[in-house]
Amino acid sequence: MKIAYPGLLREKLPSGAVRYRVRVEGDKARRIPLTVTPEHPQFVEIYHAARAGVRIEPEASPEDRAIRGSIGWLAAKHLAAMERAVEARSLSPLTLKKRRGVMKVLTSKYADYALDIPQSKLVELRDDMIETPAWADSVIEGIRAMYRWAADRRLCAVNPAIGIARIDRGKGGAIPWTPDDLRKYREYHQPGTAAHLALTIFMFTACRISDAIRLGRQHETTIEGVRALQWQPVKRDSAKVAIPMLPPLYKATRASKVTGETYLLNYRGKPFSTPDSLGQMFRRWCRDAGLEDRSSHGIRKAAAHLLAQEGCSQYQIMTVHGHTQAKTSEVYTKGVERWRLARDAMTALEVMDW
């Protein structure tokens, strides 16, 4: 559809080039030349300013505003590349959001530093966030990934973030739920509520929260005569998941009075717009049930531990969790398998003539 711009003049110059000017509204004799064409993303803003008698220049990109060869310049190029990857659907918007946070921390302190910044400066940056060790480690990990991206494109030769140790040693991530936690939550949140359905989905699919907001009846299928759920996780490089839909999960998905395109709906009866919105609501449901410091990821960990304790191999857990690398699922099976090996070894000692 062609859009009309009153007062916009397109003039062909003797050189063959095209020039655009705008008549100022209320002053036809005054014409303001434009520095951009209608294809420019800021054209509408610049056009309306010209109609009002104001001439503005297009805003430079963050990359253009930064000092070439500086950390701020590299961060802007890196984020621009990630934005293009999101548009091409080869990168998760959640990854971009997290990386923007990392770049904000980095550039707030070192934007004008040269790319070959001393590693000691990055260690200082990490140590400044000692009160939030997990985030501090995530910042360094993001900086390391940025430099790795830059090295692949020959924008730099050295990655100063390589070799910086982690400082998060204590808690090992989300706290796995115990059977008592699950019982306490279910006693407070009765079947038919969104809170009960959320717990059931997390427990019987072991899905990430980014997938929980998408799962619905369109993912139900039948495989070899068995009712199943099948979906492609949002997280990049995850394998497609196909698991049996066990009776507790099927019953919970049919207990809700309000149905929609997804199983989980907010208080307006609409799907949750982002994983964060569901995450905040789930933490509230946990607090209501008297469970502090519990999260949906802790249920995913609990499911993995229970599967391991029931004798599932790390490869079986991989298929449920969508892992593509055995080392990821090994986290849940290693302790259980070491116990089984020790138990079997000690059983062998029982027959020794001592």
From TrEMBL:
Keywords: DNA recombination. Gene3D superfamilies: Intergrase catalytic core (1.10.443.10). Pfam families: Phage_integrase. It comes from Paracoccus caeni. Residues 172-346 form the Tyr recombinase domain. This is Tyrosine-type recombinase/integrase. The keyword Coiled coil does not apply. One of its GO terms (biological process) is DNA recombination. InterPro entries: DNA_brk_join_enz, Integrase-like_cat_sf, Integrase_catalytic. GO terms for molecular function: DNA binding. It comes from the Bacteria.
